[in-house]
């Protein structure tokens, strides 16, 4: 599957740790940053794929599950460490659920918002994969 778990550089200190994102930590230029918070534990987020954009999901606080599908395989990744990020490359369907109380999901994207880059219906996603060389 077109995903990768990335360990963020961590500076450990008795006063608290720092995770750093700079230079070549992620394999793309950052174009957009946003975060999900106050998500009810019964809610789902995501429910789409990107044609070109890459995204790095980081659990700043709490935990949540990421359901991933590439048209052939399915995988669930639980994110619960703020120094571990999930890189989701193009053409991977994602759904986020099972949010713990107080969880915050930071998303770092390779592109600015572009509705044309989104595929928001799973059946359309499967058709897109079959039509993509």
Automatic annotation (TrEMBL):
Which ranges carry the Sugar 3,4-ketoisomerase QdtA cupin domain?
1-129
From what superkingdom does this record's organism come? Bacteria
Cross-referenced SUPFAM superfamilies: RmlC-like cupins (SSF51182)
Q: What is this protein called?
A: WxcM domain-containing protein
């Amino acid at each position: 599957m077109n995903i990768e778990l990335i360990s963020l550089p961590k500076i450990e200190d008795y006063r608290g740790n720092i995770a750093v994102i700079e230079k070549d930590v992620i394999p793309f230029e950052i174009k957009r940053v946003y975060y999900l918070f106050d998500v009810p534990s019964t809610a789902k987020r995501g429910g789409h794929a990107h044609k070109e954009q890459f995204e790095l999901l980081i659990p700043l606080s709490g935990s949540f599950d990421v359901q991933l599908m590439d048209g052939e395989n399915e995988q669930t990744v639980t994110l619960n460490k703020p120094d571990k990020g999930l890189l989701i490359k193009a053409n991977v369907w994602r759904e986020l659920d099972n949010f713990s109380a107080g969880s915050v999901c930071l998303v770092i994207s390779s592109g600015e918002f572009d509705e044309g880059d989104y595929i928001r219906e799973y059946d359309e996603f499967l058709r897109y994969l079959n039509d993509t060389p």
